[in-house]
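User: If you would, consider this record:
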Amino acid sequence: MAKLKMKKKSTSTDMTAMCDVAFLLLTFFILTATAKVPEALPVDMPSSVAQTKLPDTDLAIITIGKGADGKSKVFFDIKGREIRKRTLEGMGAKLGVTFSEEDKTKFALMDDFGVPLANLKQIIDMKASDRTKANQPGIPMDSLDNQLKDWLLVSRRAAIDIDDKELQIAIKGDAKEEYPQIKKIMDILQDQKINSFNLVTGMRDKNF
């Protein structure tokens, strides 16, 4: 008996639908992703295996590290737009510096900064990319002009006034920073009866 021969059909697959899905996903990620803004004061954080996530609001971060000139500098940041605005108002009233509503709005959208209050308006008026390049001298925290102490005190009051919550404090220090500089910050916290705070670290593999 003669064998029947089956006709071979084309095995090509229409990839149009898959390409459409791929481009839709790519477009979604491009539109929703946010570019990481370079830090004004980059620090090499000590390693840790802890995975506790810091809150997105009601948080003050004190960053200490060495600038391009090799000198230790302190920067300050507050998470929470309304708290930032209220803190700027309080600092202006305390140290006699006037800020407009536009200044307060811009400040609420900023990241960390490291200048005396008298020079803060110049930083506020800069573009975000220019702020990271600016040579900020750091926030004063010596015995004659301890503005870091003022920032902490005023921001804590602002958090209580707005959210009726105690402001959490975090220290983000360079792993190579000298201990006396860290101790100065800890002494300021102790003066305000702040005995609990977080230390920001980088992730390390648990196997090492």
